Every structure is written in structure tokens, then in C-alpha cells.
Amino acid sequence: MIRPLFSLGGLAVASVLLALSLGSVNVGAPDLWQVIQGQGSALNSTLILDLRLPRTLAAFATGGLLAVAGALMQVLLRNPLADPYVLGLSGGAAVGALLAMLAGLGTLLVSGSAFAGAMLATMLVFGIAHGTGSWTPSRLLLTGVVVAAGWGAVITLMLAITPSYKLPGMLYWLMGDVSYARTPWPAMAVLVLALLLTMPVARNLNVLARGPLQAAALGVSVRPLEWTIYLFASLLTATAVTTAGSIGFVGLIVPHMLRLVLGNDQRIILPASALAGGTLLVLADTLARTVIAPEQLPVGVITALLGVPMFLYLLHRSR
After folding, report:
1. How far apart are CA 33 and CA 36, in angstroms?
2. Residues 129-181 pLDDT 10s
3. Where are the domains of the chain?
4. Which CATH number fits domain 2-318: 3.40.980.10, 3.20.20.330, 3.40.50.150, 1.10.3470.10?
5. Which residue among 40, 118, 217, 280 is least crowded, i.e. fewest CB within 10 A of its CB?
6. For the whole model, what pTM was predicted?
């Protein structure tokens, strides 16, 4: 049980060191070690500690948040191909962020508006799906898809009426770009807190994954647990979107691949998803920074290029 987590932890550390070393200006291992010890040159220290390290940690936290949210959504909807964006959270966050950009607000207010939009989307989807009675996974999923389509139409309208000089920043945000992250620490704190709060109920998640009737028969409070999962997944996704914009496929691919390798024990899947998702996004961001250096690509483009063929493979395999 512990060995896969140690292996993934080692890969995570290696990916972070690789991200700190590579870029438009490469830093060798000896110079990197000197900076870690606090003995490097002022130029290397500024490059690594002030520029690359915050971006790398933000990428790791965002990837971990999306992967854990994906793992929770797949348990909630009992669908191995569920995605944290499937309920329209990214659309609500995008509308909030784009409104703030249109108003000329600062980066902090843009992030706050994105988070508020994601939470609004959460309440909207849950309120419509719940109605006057109860909700089922299929009803929640269908409501989320319809609401996401509505957000997409609003985003298209906003881009159509936006002055041309504001479009590049908006489009980069919509494609996902870690360079807009102000600080990695709020996202990292939410990730750690989410793991600490979800690990105690991992056994109940294992039972819930078998179906609500079996879970209820075994003494699990199904409805409160489902509400908790939904709110946690929404909070994690909103934090990730607020940090780095809309980055797709991480929350879909990572937990599904881990289940194929490690099984379906949530006590392993949840921390493994955090490590593997963070590692994947760090490597994708490193590739985005270096493939056409000194120019940079949005990291969402890299994850989409990697995620689309992987999703098609998983879909074919599940058939």
C-alpha cells in the first residue's frame, strides 16, 4: 500500500527538480544544488526561487487538486470516465474571470471572481438537479452538462464583444496558463487540507463506489456522504481553476489510470492522485515552457494534446 506512494513521491520530486532546471535558460545540477543550499549566484537564485519555484509549485498544486477532484467525482457519479469539469464549474469560473478582465480589475480580483463564479455554478447545478425531491448521479450529470453548455454560450458572447486588445489574456486564461498564478500556497493548502479531511472517509468511499443500496445496507450515511463529496470536489475544482485557468483532462486521465494499476481502494487512490496529478501538470508545464523557448505555450494545450488520445484509448478499452 505504501510502496506505490513512495514511488509516486519520488517521481514528484524528480519532476519538480527537472522543472527548476529547464527553461529558456537551463541551470545545471551543480548550480541548482548550490541554490538549494543558499550558496548560488544572485542570478540563479532569482531565476529559480523567485520565478520557477512558485510556478512549479502552483502547477503541482493545480494538478493535484484536479486529480483528487476527478477521483471524487468518479466515486460520486459511479462513472470511471467522469471529469471534475463535467458539472460546469470551469464555465462558471471562466465567466467570473472574464467579467473581471473586462472591467479591468487586478489579478487578485480576477482570481476572486473566478472562484465566485465556480461556486455560483456549483449552487446552480446542485439546486436545479435537486429540485423539490432528491437527485441521482444521472440527473446531476445531465444538469451539469446543460449548465456547462449555457456557460459556454455566455463565454462565446463575451469574447465576441470584447475589445481586441483584451482578447489574448482572456484566451490564455481559458486555455489554462500557470504563469497567471500569483502564489502557490493557497492551492497547496487546500490540497493538503482536502487529503486530511477525505482520508478518514476513504473506507466509506470504497463502499459507496459499489452503489448506494449496498452502502446503505452496510451502515453508510449515503446522502450526507454524497453531499460532502460533491462540495469537496467543487471546492477543489474551483481552487484549481482560480489558480491556473481551465486545464482539462488531468482530473479524467490520472485517477482512471491509477485505478487500472493500483485498484479501486480510495485510501491509495486519493493520495496517489494528488502526487500523480501534480507530477503530470509539472511535466506538462515544463514542456510548455521549453518546447518553443523563449516563447511559451498555455499548459492547457499540452494536457489536451496528451489527454485526447489517452481518453480515446480508455474509451475503446472500456468498450
Report:
1. 5
2. 776 666 677 787 788 888 888 888 998 898 888 888 888 878 877 888 887 77
3. 2-318
4. 1.10.3470.10
5. 217
6. 0.88
